[in-house]
């Protein structure tokens, strides 16, 4: 018999509508019931394409005994994080603060009167897992129920403590600071330090595409000094080629998977998100034009065509995501075996195997089903593919794709989210002239028209499904829709009127989300009564931070004739200038907005009132300020190192981490929750022609968080090998990047240049 979720529109909530759990949607009815019964709220947050959400549902939420235990002791709420990103952000902050990591499904227990969390976690198994040192879900429920009954005041005190930490993190704006070239320089330097010189991308496994990083590097290319540009070009080129030719990219249907579980981009986590397609298509299209690279234009085209083929509704709006699993097996739809190639392709099978990597050993074993036979995730060899000719290659692709489409297909989350649609409309409109493909501008225009019709009645809403709109929009929805409409007005002959609609939406966004006194931009309206803190998204995640998106929308408005646009954009950026300055790579989209204002001659607006505009030096990557890495010291065994051509050189680094601190290990096989933290890495910055290879030690889990990411603490040594890879460019320096954390908080990412001279002559 269906539960209360059966009447919801969210595909994620509907997936749980037949659980033997008395689920409630997030809202006043559930809150009132918990207060009336004087029981805690169990809040489970996830999304429809989340693999571990599916696992926990099968293991726990389909168990009638668990359903009975929940019903007796809690009021249970299911929340789709994609419908309420503001709620998700608040409780994710609480989870990270209390456990050191986060992820989905998020499992939280709330004090019913205040909705403040007193216990936070993610996935809990059905039986205790010694390998993760995690209790079973039943043990958690029984233990917390007992504590609530026996020590209610202690529970409320703990909820207060956690909530205060969340409020401090989300509301502390710091002191306004001058913005300009310094933040751009720091961001570029940190990105180049985090760049994986062997495999492309930034940081270790799991490896995410990080399109906001690539966007900033493309933006900054014309502004950096001549010594830095080769290193920037290498980071962009290697990353785009690696992502485009390995497992992250779907080489048959097009589009990109969410991330890769390994450092080499070989095995993806197979879900496909609309926002990734929007960001990556635009990055590839921009880079194709900037570097005159047809191969990247082809990838951008393939990605946008995939969206039109598989993520577009009959009314022209864009759908949210495609699931990772089929039949409880992650990636099953995307995996291949040589025998399948032979059956489908006949005489073309051998050459196709060479193109797509099936002539190598299998690269995929399902860690959750070790008894399954190994299989292959497709890669792509450009050189071999070129030798086959485009017609033959297209024929091979089409036959393989037809066979794949005959298999059971993963589920599609068919809701349309305004912000994600805005991202895709903006991307398609921007890509149309870059790819000389007006069909993308037409598709973007049709999507915008349909979206505006669906959301025509009164206040903008966030989501729609089957033509029915629901849930008031958040800041990111207004900001991305404005950006989309401004871009369409530039490139589509019938879209001029949309510019006025964008201006009107911006007026609403400023009224609803921006504090008129401080110019701080908030994710949710002040009137929302279900939030114990009003969140601000100043940092980027899978999506750019909404504050930065609003700043870009205001800059767009200024370029479209609004005389106040640039000034308000600068004020909004200044309201979070301390955060941007402390952690520029965590606020990359905001840094890109700073660079836009500088290029438009608006640098004088980026000084706080009362602080004289100090001028802007050339954008030259520089060292992170000393106080950002005081908790980590690194000493090299040599003061000067000769690195002749053909003869590698070696140095030993001694790393000392202050007591009570730790850093994320270099190749920690981190949980998906810790991917926002910068791992410990050694690299060469500020020039090219030298590569660094470090023998990183294995990390350890913290005693307080044995299921979390691997970390380093205390003192350790590592050997670094440096070798020549080509002509020397710039002024190569050896640097260490890391992010120091304590048990309760993490400092901003930092980079430390080492006091060792590199002689390459």
Descriptive report:
With 761 residues, this protein is α+β, with helices and mostly antiparallel strands. It folds into four domains: 4-171, Glutaredoxin; 181-195 and 204-324 and 413-606, Alpha/alpha barrel (Glycosyltransferase), CATH 1.50.10.10; 325-409, no CATH class; 626-759, Immunoglobulin-like (Sandwich), CATH 2.60.40. A hairpin with a 2-residue loop joins β10 (325-326) and β11 (329-330). It is globular. It starts with 10 loop residues before the first helix and ends with a strand. Mean pLDDT is 90; it is low at 612-617, 622-629 and 668-674.
Features:
single chain, alpha+beta, Glutaredoxin, 5-stranded mixed β-sheet, 5-stranded antiparallel β-sheet
CATH topology value of the largest domain: Glycosyltransferase
Radius of gyration: 26 Å
Report the β-strand fraction as a percent range.
Answer: 15-25%
**Helices and strands: which structural class?**
alpha+beta
Give the mean pLDDT.
Answer: 90
Alpha plus pi helix count: 24
- Please report the total strand number as a whole number: 27
Top CATH class of the largest domain: Mainly Alpha
Architecture per CATH nomenclature, i.e. the level-2 architecture of the largest domain? Alpha/alpha barrel
Low-confidence stretches: 612-617, 622-629, 668-674
Distance between the termini: 76 Å
Tell me about the largest β-sheet. 5 strands, mixed
């Amino acid at each position: 018999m269906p539960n209360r979720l059966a009447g919801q529109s969210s595909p994620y909530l509907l997936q749980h509508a037949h659980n033997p759990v008395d689920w409630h949607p997030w809202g006043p009815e559930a809150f009132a019931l918990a207060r009336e019964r004087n029981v805690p709220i169990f809040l489970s947050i996830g999304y429809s394409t989340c693999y571990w959400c599916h696992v926990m549902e099968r293991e726990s939420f389909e168990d009638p005994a668990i359903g009975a235990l929940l019903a007796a002791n809690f009021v249970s709420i299911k929340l789709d994080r994609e419908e309420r990103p503001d709620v998700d952000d608040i409780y994710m902050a609480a989870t990270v603060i209390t456990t050191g990591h986060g992820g989905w499904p998020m499992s939280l227990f709330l004090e019913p009167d205040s909705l403040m969390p007193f216990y936070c976690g993610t996935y809990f198994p059905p039986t205790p897992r010694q390998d993760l040192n995690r209790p079973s879900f039943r043990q958690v429920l029984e233990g917390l129920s007992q504590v609530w009954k026996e020590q209610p005041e202690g529970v409320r005190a703990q909820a207060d403590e956690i909530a205060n930490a969340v409020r401090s993190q989300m509301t502390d704006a710091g002191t306004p600071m001058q913005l300009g070239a310094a933040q751009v320089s720091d961001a570029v330097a940190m990105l180049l330090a985090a760049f994986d010189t062997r495999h492309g991308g930034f940081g270790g496994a799991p490896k995410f595409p990080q399109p906001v990083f690539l966007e900033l590097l493309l933006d900054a290319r014309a502004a950096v000094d001549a010594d830095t540009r080769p290193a920037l070009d290498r980071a962009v080129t290697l990353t785009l080629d690696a992502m485009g030719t390995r497992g992250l990219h779907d080489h048959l249907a097009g589009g990109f998977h969410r991330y890769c579980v390994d450092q080499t981009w070989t095995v993806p986590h197979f879900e496909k998100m609309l926002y990734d397609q929007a960001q990556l298509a635009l990055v590839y299209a921009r880079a194709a034009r900037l570097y005159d690279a047809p191969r990247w234009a082809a990838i951008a085209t393939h990605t946008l065509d995939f969206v039109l083929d598989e993520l577009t509704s009959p009314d022209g709006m864009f759908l949210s995501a495609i699931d990772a699993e089929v039949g409880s097996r992650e990636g099953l739809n995307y995996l291949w075996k040589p025998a399948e190639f032979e059956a489908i392709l006949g005489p073309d099978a051998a050459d196709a195997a060479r193109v797509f990597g099936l002539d190598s050993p299998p690269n995929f074993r399902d860690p959750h089903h070790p008894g399954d036979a190994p299989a292959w995730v497709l890669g792509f060899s450009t050189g071999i593919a070129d030798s086959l000719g485009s017609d033959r290659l297209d024929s091979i692709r089409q036959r393989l794709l037809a066979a794949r489409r005959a298999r059971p297909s993963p589920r599609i989350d068919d809701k349309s989210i305004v912000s994600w649609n805005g991202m895709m409309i903006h991307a398609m409109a921007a890509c149309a002239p870059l790819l000389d493909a007006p069909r993308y501008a037409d598709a973007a225009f049709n999507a915008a028209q349909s979206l505006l019709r669906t959301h025509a009645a009164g206040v903008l809403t966030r989501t729609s499904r089957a033509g029915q709109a629901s849930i008031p929009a958040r800041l990111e929805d207004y900001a991305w829709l404005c950006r989309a409409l401004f871009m369409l007005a530039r490139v589509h002959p019938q879209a001029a009127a949309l510019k006025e609609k964008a201006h009107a939406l911006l007026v609403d966004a400023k009224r609803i989300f921006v504090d008129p006194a401080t110019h701080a931009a908030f994710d949710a309206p002040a009137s929302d009564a279900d939030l114990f803190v009003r969140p601000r998204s100043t940092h980027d995640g899978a999506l750019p931070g909404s504050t930065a998106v609003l700043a870009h929308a205001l800059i767009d408005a200024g370029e479209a004739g609004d005389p106040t646009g640039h000034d308000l954009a600068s004020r909004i950026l200044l309201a979070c200038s301390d955060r941007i300055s402390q952690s520029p790579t965590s606020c990359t989209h905001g840094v890109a907005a700073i660079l836009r204002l500088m290029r438009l001659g608006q640098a004088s607006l980026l000084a706080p009132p009362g602080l004289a505009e100090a001028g802007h030096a050339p954008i030259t990557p520089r060292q992170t300020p000393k106080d950002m890495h005081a908790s980590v010291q690194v000493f090299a065994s040599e003061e000067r190192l000769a690195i002749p051509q053909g003869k590698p050189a070696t140095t030993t680094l001694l790393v000392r981490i202050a007591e009570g601190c730790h850093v994320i290990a270099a190749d920690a096989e981190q949980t998906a929750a810790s991917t926002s933290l910068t791992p410990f890495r050694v690299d060469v910055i500020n020039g090219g022609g030298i590569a660094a290879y470090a023998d990183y030690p294995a990390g350890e889990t913290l005693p307080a968080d044995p299921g979390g990411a691997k970390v380093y603490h205390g003192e350790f040594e590592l050997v670094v090998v440096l070798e020549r890879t080509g002509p020397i460019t710039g002024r190569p320096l050896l640097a260490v990047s890391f992010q120091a954390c304590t048990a309760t908080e993490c400092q901003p990412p930092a980079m430390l240049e080492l006091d060792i001279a590199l002689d390459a002559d």
